[in-house]
Structure formats: structure tokens, C-alpha cells
Write a structure and sequence with these properties.
Shape of chain B: globular
Oligomer: heterotrimer
Largest sheet of chain B: 5 strands, mixed
Strand content of chain B: 5-15%
Chains: A mainly alpha (348), B alpha/beta (331), C alpha/beta (417)
Number of helices of chain B: 12
Radius of gyration of chain B: 20 Å
Strand content of chain C: 15-25%
Number of strands of chain C: 18
Shape of chain C: globular
Order of helices and strands of chain B: HEEEHEHEHEHHEEHEHEHHEHH
Structural class of chain B: alpha/beta
Distance between the termini of chain B: 58 Å
Distance between the termini of chain C: 52 Å
Chain lengths: 348, 331, 417
């Protein structure tokens, strides 16, 4: 927090910003179909009104860049940033670096909410608004339940957090199966939603999710400072002037909103909210006011790159992006779990 | 829990394909081997195919699972576990002997809806209920590929399970003949095959000389799924005068990149009723306007029951496809 | 009691489980600039009462007012400007730096966006230098020692700049020097800023020597309060702690000090003798324990006014002493030398050494050289208690080379005989 570290933090942010830019360019440059970077740039320049329409660019190339790749990369960035921000908030609230929205079941809760809406109103335009709202409701309820289950006295222990997450996820998974077995014709819409990932709606998804994510990020920024004090325990935070219950409600709402926004357009994607804040905490320190912006940039970069891998390794087929993040995040999670277990053991 | 979450995404996909396959008679498990040495697996002993119109029993028969089955006498109590098998049994005039069908997808002919359903069991709700099957005391259980575990169980319990799994139109005709032999309805089978072959010849005569159009067959979206070579549908598409743009696929039912679809720019876009999207919905999707078929209004909904179900109505499906792809040829 | 206006007023407070309250009907006031020690045996409700005063626990009955305002009715933010708590033991979940932790103490003053106003930074820095942790500012809190971390949290509480300071067992896990430092800081703050202090202290002597008033909790009820002299009495010790003890006046502080009576005589080891070189109370514990373990204990040379001398007297130990403020003379040295030569064990305590008693270290060195098993206790470095200008340090180091060195009194273990 000295002048020296403030300057260092600015450098880290600039570095993360540049990395995100590079990931973005890479994301737009590669895909199942080869469009040269030069062509891509010329299409974008034309669309921005900087040049006339390039003569030699095919309609296919134009559509691929403008309507397929750009929205997908932008969406991956928004979703990644939202997941990382959600992870930052939940880790702060749970006082635990393993609190990822997917691990604690919040993403599953959001998915259940979405599926219920799809079953009741179908996959049409009503669902376009209903799915995000129901996802938010599902995520919020799940977060509260897991928080209540995981907390024993003042602390949230790794074991109880994971057990609560597993238990809640199991219940949600059963409910999901139940809902789907009663879904009839809607089953197709459910599958389409569950499997659609980042592909589905292009710029419409971006337009749908962006306001919610902006709102969520503003909320996260609002609770960031107070989350710092939660690291000292709820009682100590209260002694230092924090209305802890109000903060908890806000933090859960903010974390759930960000997770639900991500889930409602991209389905359940794990580990982005786990890895990003944890790694960046090592770089920028524990202060959530610094960690949050860094995590948003880092999470956006991570998911854009994961999506690049997802849609290139088996082209023209594609992998669900969640498979890629899980391949990265699974070992990371196990490493973290082992380390937390060891230090908990050392303390005991 | 995320590590399993993404896997369960794949699982769901598998399930989806499995469900679709069971409903429509195209098994995802039917590999390229089915098109190999034993085209239909119909290799009865004692009678050479098609040569003897009179039914002879007992008949010993190696089915498409490679399992040898002996049917002692003409079956009186038949259970089918695939809508295509149900249609074949009815087409052979044996509907009154059918005592069990798989489920609500067995919707043709209309009488099939009144027959006892035996499906919906197992982890994914796509297996037959073994107890129910045994209670029906069938002397023939006719089905398609897949479900080796419950098939073994049924065989252990003395149920004569026969698997007929068509990989293309010719294979289907052989399967219908085989079904006739094991049910004693050889004459009906021969007549049906003859009729189907005549219809097929007629379609071929109409589109055989026209330039094939490029097409894409959508089974699901999003993400976009299609059919690849080696599937019954793919064979039908080719017969209907079309070059699917998915010829390079190395899977039977691959996920397909929209980018690649836009770049390949098919002339006709076929949407299976399994996918359920209307031409308007397809046109609204991000990037799809750039596809020639969409721009030209050549997005065609296809009745999956006719095209994807290897049964006696398949020629209706073939004709439907051919007309959609080459309207001028049928003018 | 008349005096400055009360900063903390606890009135009729009952708290804990509804059916079985931990504290019942407690009335207690802490005035501006006053240090009140909350004492009582384990489980008497001290921590519960402090938690009520810090709003961590809502009382089932009664009122708590700080600066005249109802503490339970105000916002957490307002309360945090009035009440600062030094917590018992905290392990932050993430690696905040010490400065970040101290700055958290400014939370009740900063805006939601938590800007680093120059004033907040200055106050945080000042609080850190008051507790001598400014050099740790950029160190992660989880890498600090227990004592350092405790001082960082004291800084955090100081940064709150509140008129009431609550200390809950502030000395647990601290070594003696840090205890004295911490209490010194608190006393200075109280005197300088008029801060009212309520401190839970388990060490009755420490409480008596540090606090202006003591409040004694027993089974959840306040059984006595007043100056240490009026509160710490044998009758109270018997009633509350269930011990027979003397209360003497500490020569150094003038405050009452508890002298728990000698334990029943142990089966004395025939001919097992130990000699203790102490002073300034540093030998008292060892003498009690050796005596309790059945050793024939001798001690010397002590000044007549020394705490250790009083303890030795009460324990009825063989002792060599000289009058207060005199030097150890040849006669006393010789008497002591004979005791050391006859001993099977020599314990050298980390007492302060000046010209008056440095002769003890010469005697210790002779004994160690004569092959008597020697234990040297070193909780406080010799440099900090050498008032001879270097002679004592030299002798100490010489003894040290021949002795078994232990870092804390607890590490001394005596065979029960």
C-alpha cells in the first residue's frame, strides 16, 4: 500500500490489460475457418467506419468475423470476467480460496432456475428474460443455503464448505433430473440451453448479459473494501464498523448475480472463479479493491483463451469450454485442496 | 461440482443422442462394422434369402449383434423395442401379434399407441423394463443396436432377442426380408421389399442425372449437431441427390462449427423435426443469414419420423427429401 | 466514586444463553482516563461481558452506553468510532500486509470506496510506531510471529481512535517483555488521550499492578470492584478463586500482590539440594516449584527488600541476604558460596544485575566451574538488564558457556522426588 506497491499494482493492471488485448486478438484470429489477421482487421476497421468495405472480403469472412467470432470472444470475456469477479466475492465472503461459484453449487442453482423456467414457459422469447431472472434466484438461494451449511461458528472450514457444496449440488442435480423428466417437449430446449455454451445467441447474448454484469461489478466494487474486513472474521469485522449481516446479503446477491449472468448465457463453467482470484492474489495482494479489477481482467483473458482451445483442438467440431477450464482447473483445485489441508493440519 | 459438471454436459449430449436414436431407430452404437462383411446379418440357415416364399421353422438366425437365435415356430407374442421395428411388424401384417412396444414414440400406425409400453427404465430412462417384458411372455423381441446389458439379461431369462439395425437403404430391405423369415411372413416381406425397391428406383430415375446440391442436415442446435457418413440418414441424403457438406466428418453424429458451416455455404439447409427449429428461427440465428440456403429461403423442415426411422415408410422420406432438394425434377 | 465522566456504562446487563445466562445483572462503569481490570476465574463471564461491551453479543437485559449514547441502538460504524477492541487471537483468511490490517482500523472513518486519506494513513502509521511494528508494514500478516501479530492488532485498535479500549486477555501467548510493553502503551494512551480501558486479565498480580480499579466477576456476577488495595484481599481470593493466599504489598509498585501459600510439604528427597540465584522476582516461580517438588532450596544473595526475598521467606527457604541498597559483601558471598558448593543443582535466573548484586554472577561462575549442574534461564537478554556497564554481561556469558541454557521458565522441568 505504499507508493512503491501502488506503482507496482498499476504495472500489473496494465500488464493484465495488454494480455487481455492479446487474447482478444488471438480469439478473433483463430477458429474453425481460417481468416487472416489482416482480413480480420480490415473487416473490423470497415465496421468501425474507418474504411470503405474491402473489395476482396467474402460475405462468409465478414459474417464469421463480425457475427460469429467477435460476439463469441466478447461474450467469453464478459462471462470470464463475471465468473472471476463472482469467485473473488465468494472467496472473500467464505474466507476461503476454494469458494468458486461452481464448486459451492451456486452455478448449479442458477442452472436449475433456468431449467425450471424453460420447462414452464418454453425456450421462446419469454424465456429470454425469464431464464436470467430465474438463474439469479436459483443462484442466490443456493448461495445462502451453502453459506448457512458451511459455516460452523465464526469460520467456514474447507471440509464443511466442500461437503455443503457437494450436498447442495447433489440435491440440485436430482431436482434437475426430476424437472427434466417432467419436461416433455421442452427437453430439447433444456438441452439446447445446457449445451449451447458461448455459441448460441451471438450479440443478443452480449446485450442480455452485459447490463447484469456491469451491475454486478459495480456491486462487487461496492462491497470490496468491506470484504477485506471479513477476512478477520465476522465478529472482528463488526467491531470495526461493518454491518456484517447486510454485507453478507449484499455480497451473496452480487456474487450470485455475476454467476447467474454468466450461467444464463454460457451454462455452467467451472474453475475460472477459483483460479483467477487465487493466482492474482499472489500478485496484487489480498486487498479486494485491488484484486477485483485484476480478477476481472484475468478471468476474461482466461476464458477467451480456454474458448480458443475449445473451438480449435477438434475443429470443425468443438469442445464445451467448460471441459477446457476443468482440465486446467481440476489439477489446480486438487493442488490447492492439498495445500489447504496441509496448513490446516499444521495449525491443528 | 464442476469437474463432473462439464462431464455431465457430455453425458447429457450422449443421452440426447441415445434418446434420439432409440426413438428413431438409428443407433449411435451402430459402427461402420455394420456395413461390412455381413450387410444385414440376415443369414438364416436352411433357406436362402428370398428364394423360398414358404416359411420354414425352426429358423436359426445370426442377428446384427452377431448373436445366433433360434425361433422354433411362428411368433405369436411379439415385443418391439424401436419405433422402426414396430412399423415393420405392422407392415408385415402382424400388428395383432404385437403385445409390447417401446413407448410413446411408437406412434405409427395409430393402433400402436394402444399396445402395452415397456420402455422408460434404466439410469437414463431409455431401457426396457425387464420385468414388464418377461411378464408379457414374448416369443420374439425385436429391436435395434445398443443396450447390450439388458439384452444379455433378457436372453438369460429366455427371451429371444433379435437385433436388426439398418445402416443404409439396401440394408433396410434385407432387414425387412429377415423380419419376414423369422416371423413367418415371408410373402408379405417380399411384397413390401419389392414395392420399396420400385419406389427407390423411381426417385433415382428422377434425381439420378441432376447435379447434386450441397446441403446440411441439422439434428440439434445449439450447439449445432449434424450427421456424418456411415449413417442411415447420410445414405438417404445422397440418394435424394445431395452432397452433404459434412462429408469430412469422422464421427457419425458430430458437433459442427457454425463458422465452418458459413464457409461451406450449403445450398439447402435441412432441419430435422428432432431439432424442431422453424425456418424463421434458423434465419434469426447469429451468422446464419450468410448461408446461401438461408438467404435463398431454402431452409426445409424434415419430418424425422419419415427420414430417420429405418422402416417401411422410408420411401416417403426419401421422396420428401428429393423433392425438397430438387423441386424441378418432380415438377 | 466521583471523578471524570464515565465513558463506558454497563447497567444491569444479563447476557448469554437465555435459560442460563453467563453474566447476570452486572453494573460497571469505566471513566475517562481510567484503566479497569476485569478479573475472575475461568468461566466467570469476563469475555462474555467484554463481548457485550463490544456489541459482539446482545445482552438479554440491561443497557450499555458509551459516551452517554446507547451502544446497542447505534450503527456498527458509529459504535466502531467509540469502542476499539484488541482481540484475543486472530488469523486473517488472506495474506494482508500489516499496514493493510492496521488501516482496516480506520474503516469507521473512511468512505465506502475506502480511499486512503492522508489522515488515515498518518494515524495508521502513528499507531504502528506506538506499538513498534512500523518496520513490519509491508510484511504479510501471516508471516509474523504471534507477538508481532498481537501488536499489529493493537495498532489496528489504536487506529480506531476510540475513547474506549477493550482488551480481552491481551497478554496471552506474549512473552513478559511484550506484556509489559503492551500494558505500557495502553497506560500511556489512557494517561495522554484520556482513553478509558477495560481489560480482561487472568494474571491477578498483573491486573493489580496495571489497573486503576479492578472489577471481580464470579459465576457471572460482579462480586467486588474498587482499587486493587480494596479488592485483592485474602477473603476475596478464598471466595472467588478458592485458594488460601497472602496478599502483600509489592515493593516496586506499591500495589497488592498475591502470595499463594506453600503447597503441602512433599516427600523431601534426602540430601537433594538446589540453589537459586534470583532477584527482582525472577526467582520466585523457580523457588516455588523447586520447593514444591521437594528440593531443599537455598537462595541468595538477595537484597532484603526484594520480591524474591519475600517469597523465600514465606516458603521458609535457606537464604542469604543483605540490606536494601547495599552491596553484596565478602561475608554474604562466603555464606552463599558454601550453599552453592553444597547444592546438587544451581539455577541462575535472568534477574537485573547492577553493582549491588553482580557478585552473584561471580559466585555462579565459581559454582559452574566447580562442576555443579547449572541451569541458566534467559527470557530477557542480558544486555537489557546489565546495569554494570558490561561486567555482568561478560560474567553471564561465561556462566552461559558452562550451563544448560533454557529460554523460558516453563522449560525447566524438575524431577518429582
Amino acid at each position: 500500500m505504499t507508493v512503491r506497491t501502488a506503482a507496482r499494482y498499476r504495472r500489473v493492471l496494465v500488464g493484465l490489460g495488454l494480455t487481455l488485448g492479446a487474447a482478444f486478438l488471438l480469439g478473433v484470429a483463430v477458429g474453425a475457418v481460417w481468416v487472416s489477421p489482416m482480413t480480420t482487421l480490415r473487416i473490423v476497421a470497415w465496421k468501425l467506419g474507418l474504411t470503405d468495405r474491402p473489395e476482396d472480403v467474402t460475405r462468409a469472412a465478414e459474417v464469421i468475423v463480425l457475427q460469429l467470432r467477435l460476439p463469441r470472444v466478447v461474450l467469453a470475456g464478459i462471462v470470464g470476467g463475471a465468473l472471476a469477479a463472482s469467485g473473488t466475492v465468494f472467496q472473500g465472503l467464505f474466507r476461503n480460496a476454494l469458494a468458486d461459484p461452481a464448486i459451492i453449487g451456486v452455478s448449479s442453482g442458477a442452472a436449475l432456475g433456468a431449467v425450471v423456467v424453460i420447462v414452464t414457459v418454453g425456450g421462446g422469447s419469454l424465456a429470454a428474460l425469464g431464464v436470467p431472472l430465474a438463474a439469479f434466484a436459483g443462484a442466490t438461494v443456493t448461495a445462502f443455503v451453502v453459506y448457512r451449511l458451511a459455516r460452523i461458528g465464526p469460520a467456514v472450514h474447507v471440509a464443511t464448505l466442500l461437503l455443503a457444496g457437494i450436498a447442495v449440488a447433489a440435491v440440485i442435480s436430482s431436482l434437475m433430473s426430476l424437472v427434466m423428466s417432467f419436461s416433455g417437449e421442452a427437453i430439447r430446449d433444456i438441452y439446447a440451453w445446457l449445451l449451447g455454451g458461448l455459441v448460441a445467441e451471438g450479440w443478443r447474448s452480449v446485450a442480455l448479459v452485459l447490463p447484469a454484469v456491469i451491475l454486478g461489478l459495480a456491486g462487487a466494487a461496492l462491497v470490496a473494501h468491506e470484504l477485506n474486513l471479513v477476512a478477520l472474521g465476522e465478529e472482528r469485522a463488526a467491531q470495526l464498523g461493518i454491518e456484517v449481516d447486510r454485507l453478507k446479503r449484499r455480497a451473496i446477491a452480487v456474487g450470485a448475480l455475476l454467476a447467474a449472468a454468466a450461467v444464463s448465457v454460457a451454462g455452467v463453467i467451472g474453475f475460472v472463479g477459483l483460479m483467477t482470484p487465487h493466482l492474482l492474489r499472489l500478485v496484487v495482494g489480498a486487498d479486494h479493491r485491488r484484486l477485483l479489477p485484476a480478477s476481472v481482467l484475468g478471468g476474461a483473458t482466461l476464458l477467451i483463451l480456454a474458448d480458443v482451445v475449445a473451438r480449435t483442438v477438434v475443429a470443425p467440431a468443438e469442445l464445451p469450454v467448460g471441459v477446457v477450464t476443468a482440465l486446467l482447473g481440476g489439477p489446480f483445485f486438487l493442488f490447492l485442496l492439498r495445500r489447504q489441508g496441509r496448513s490446516a493440519g499444521a495449525r491443528a | 461440482m464442476t469437474p463432473t459438471r462439464s462431464r455431465s454436459g457430455l453425458l447429457l449430449l450422449l443421452l440426447l443422442l441415445l434418446a434420439a436414436a432409440c426413438a428413431d431407430g438409428a443407433s449411435p452404437a451402430s459402427g461402420p462394422s455394420a456395413t461390412g462383411a455381413s450387410p444385414s446379418g440376415a443369414s438364416p440357415t436352411g433357406a436362402s434369402p428370398g428364394s423360398s416364399p414358404a416359411a420354414t421353422f425352426p429358423v436359426t438366425f445370426t442377428d446384427d449383434d452377431g448373436v445366433s437365435v433360434t425361433i422354433d415356430s411362428p411368433p405369436e407374442r411379439i415385443v418391439t423395442f424401436a419405433p422402426s421395428a414396430t412399423e415393420i411388424v405392422f407392415a408385415l401384417g402382424l400388428g395383432d401379434r404385437l403385445v409390447g412396444v417401446s413407448g410413446p414414440f411408437d406412434d405409427h400406425p395409430a393402433e400402436a399407441a394402444d399396445i402395452q409400453e415397456i420402455g422408460g427404465a434404466g439410469d437414463f430412462g431409455v431401457d426396457p423394463n425387464v420385468e414388464q417384458v418377461v411378464a408379457l411372455e414374448p416369443d420374439l423381441f425385436l429391436t435395434i443396436k445398443g443396450g447390450d446389458q439388458w439384452k444379455d439379461r433378457l436372453r438369460e431369462l429366455g427371451v429371444p432377442v433379435v437385433t436388426l439395425d439398418a445402416t443404409d437403404l439396401d440394408d433396410l430391405l434385407l432387414d425387412i426380408e429377415a423380419a419376414g423369415r423369422i416371423t413367418g411372413a415371408t410373402e408379405e416381406a417380399a411384397a413390401l421389399v419389392e414395392e420399396l425397391r420400385a419406389d427407390a428406383d423411381e426417385v433415382e430415375a428422377a434425381v439420378g442425372d441432376v447435379q447434386p446440391v450441397s446441403c446440411f442436415y441439422e439434428t440439434f442446435y445449439p450447439p449445432l449437431f449434424t450427421v456424418g457418413p456411415g449413417t442411415f440418414i447420410y445414405d438417404l441424403l445422397e440418394r435424394a441427390g445431395c452432397d452433404p457438406v459434412t462429408a469430412s466428418a469422422d464421427q457419425q453424429y458430430p458437433e459442427w462449427s457454425v463458422e465452418d458451416l458459413v464457409a461451406r455455404d450449403p445450398e439447402v439447409y435441412l432441419v430435422s423435426s428432432e431439432s424442431g427449429a422453424s425456418p424463421r428461427a434458423v434465419a434469426r440465428r447469429a451468422g446464419f443469414q450468410a448461408i446461401g440456403a438461408v438467404a435463398d429461403g431454402r431452409v426445409v423442415p424434415v419430418d424425422a419420423d419419415l427420414v430417420e426411422r429405418p422402416g417401411p415408410r422410408i420411401l416417403l422420406g426419401l421422396r420428401l427429401l428429393a423433392e425438397a432438394l430438387h423441386p424441378d425434377a418432380f415438377a | 466514586m466521583l471523578g471524570p465522566e464515565p465513558t463506558l456504562e454497563i447497567e444491569g446487563v444479563t447476557a448469554g444463553y437465555a435459560a442460563d445466562p453467563v453474566v447476570r445483572g452486572v453494573d460497571l462503569a469505566v471513566r475517562r482516563g481510567e484503566i479497569v481490570g476485569l478479573v475472575g476465574p475461568n468461566g466467570s463471564g469476563k469475555t462474555t461481558l467484554v463481548r457485550v461491551a463490544s456489541r459482539a453479543l446482545r445482552p438479554t437485559a440491561g443497557r450499555v452506553r458509551v459516551g452517554g449514547a446507547d451502544l446497542l441502538a447505534m450503527s456498527a460504524r458509529e459504535a466502531a468510532r467509540l469502542v476499539a477492541v484488541v482481540p484475543q487471537e486472530l488469523a486473517p483468511a488472506f495474506s494482508f500486509t500489516a499496514l493493510e490490517v492496521v488501516l482496516m482500523g480506520r474503516t469507521p472513518y473512511v468512505s465506502r470506496w475506502g480511499g486512503g486519506r492522508a489522515e488515515d494513513w498518518a494515524l495508521a502509521r502513528a499507531a504502528m510506531s506506538a506499538t513498534q511494528v512500523q518496520h513490519l508494514a509491508d510484511r504479510p500478516i501471516d508471516e509474523l510471529s504471534g507477538g508481532e501479530r498481537r501488536r499489529v492488532f493493537l495498532s489496528q485498535a489504536l487506529a480506531q481512535d476510540a475513547p474506549l479500549l477493550l482488551l480481552d486477555e491481551p497478554t496471552t501467548h506474549l512473552d513478559v517483555r511484550h506484556v509489559l510493553d503492551l500494558l505500557g502503551i495502553v497506560r500511556g494512551l489512557s494517561a495522554r488521550e484520556g482513553t478509558a480501558v477495560l481489560a480482561v486479565l487472568h494474571d491477578l498480580d498483573l491486573a493489580a499492578s496495571t489497573c486503576d480499579r479492578l472489577a471481580v466477576l464470579h459465576r457471572g456476577e460482579l462480586v467486588a470492584q474498587g482499587t486493587p488495595e480494596t479488592v485483592v484481599t485474602p477473603a476475596l481470593l478464598r471466595e472467588v478463586y478458592g485458594v488460601e493466599a497472602d496478599v502483600v504489598t509489592d515493593e516496586l509498585t506499591g500495589r497488592p500482590s498475591v502470595r499463594v501459600g506453600p503447597p503441602p510439604p512433599a516427600t523431601a528427597p534426602i540430601g537433594r539440594r538446589a540453589h537459586v540465584i534470583g532477584g527482582a522476582g525472577r526467582g520466585a516461580g523457580v523457588m516455588r516449584r523447586l520447593s514444591g517438588a521437594g528440593y531443599d532450596v537455598s537462595v541468595g544473595v538477595l537484597h532484603g527488600s526484594d520480591t524474591d526475598a519475600a517469597v523465600a521467606e514465606r516458603l521458609n527457604l535457606v537464604r542469604v541476604s543483605v540490606p536494601p541498597f547495599s552491596h553484596v559483601d565478602a561475608e554474604a558471598s562466603q555464606a552463599c558460596r558454601e550453599l552453592i558448593e553444597a547444592a546438587d543443582l544451581l539455577i541462575v535466573c535472568d534477574a537485573p544485575f547492577g553493582p549491588g548484586n553482580v557478585a552473584n554472577l561471580r559466585l555462579a561462575l565459581e559454582g559452574a566451574r566447580a562442576g555443579i549442574p547449572t541451569y541458566l534461564v534467559e527470557e530477557v537478554p542480558i544486555e537489557e538488564r546489565d546495569f554494570t556497564g558490561g561486567e555482568a554481561s561478560e560474567l553471564w556469558r561465561a556462566v552461559r558457556r558452562l550451563a544448560t541454557v533454557v529460554g523460558a521458565y516453563e522449560e525447566l522441568a524438575f524431577e518429582e522426588r
